[in-house]
Amino acid sequence: MLPSEWEKHEATWLVWPQNSKDWPGKFSAIKWVYVEIVKYLSESEIVRIIVDSENVEKQVKKTLSRSGIDLDNVEFLICRTNRSWIRDSGPFFVFDKEGRLGILDFSFNAWAKYSNWQYDNKVPLKVADFLGLKCESKKGLVLEGGGLDVNGKGTLITTEQCLLNKSTQVRNKDFEKKNYEELFIKYFGVTNVLWLKEGISGDDTNGHVDDLCRFVNPKTVVICEEKNKEDENYSVLRENRERLQSMKLEDGSNIEVVEIPMPSPRSFEGFRLPASYANFYISNELVLVPTFNDSNDYKAMGIVAELFPKRKVVGINCTDLIWGFGGIHCLTKEQPARSNT
Known about the structure:
Helix content is 25%, strand content 26%. The chain is an alpha/beta fold. The protein has a single domain, classed as L-arginine/glycine Amidinotransferase, Chain A (5-stranded Propeller). Strand 16, helix 9 (297-307) and strand 17 (312-317) form a beta-alpha-beta unit.
């Protein structure tokens, strides 16, 4: 069973940023975004950080200590990587029928877009070795964590654009809906798959659902809403909202749908960036919400706060981070508590 993100974590995994090409002209600022994320997460769970070398580990420890972070709750794994988006390159943590935690190791190919992914493709096995967990290889099947979301009760949500595209950023060229659904049933304990159509404009992954629509509890999703009819996201988001109206949960009940606004469009060198409040991360005691110095920041945080009354909502300024075509959820990966409680 693939657990929901709000279930108790043992740790959150990060990959310390090392590829300056992911943030052209902004790289020096990115580590401070990470520092802020580590600061908040380490208050309620272990933060495990992947670094390229012992030298980098020493530098990161120094940076975190200077920022007042208690390193007792921070651990390091030395492992070469290509990029920092561990949501997609990292392991899928799943529980077997006996409740034992293990890892599924799917192939990662940099969203079928970039040529340098070979180090990232080895990350799940390295993590499994570090934790002493059984790792079941599914190499040959491409799957990314940001491409799906679950409610932990049997329902999974994804997009046709990401998984079924046959011409652009193709993951598994021979797979149809039924093939993915069989995979989700077999390995994730899913009984119900919800297919939205497309992701938001500017998404470098070609349609990841974590920039678009997220479960916040077993019965409720938040979905992005664009009110500007001239915006290229308007019709896409409206169609996805309409699809949700006719969809059901695993028990046949209706889905509670809450709309969350989009920030104003962001761009880099003429390319739309995937700025989205839906790319939040749920930790044990917090919800980290991306902000963009936008008029909708407080509205979005207020909506999230109402949905998570027992968690503190913290805004993380992602104005620089989004230049790398990813957000908070993209760079985090939850490791469930091994007792699943």
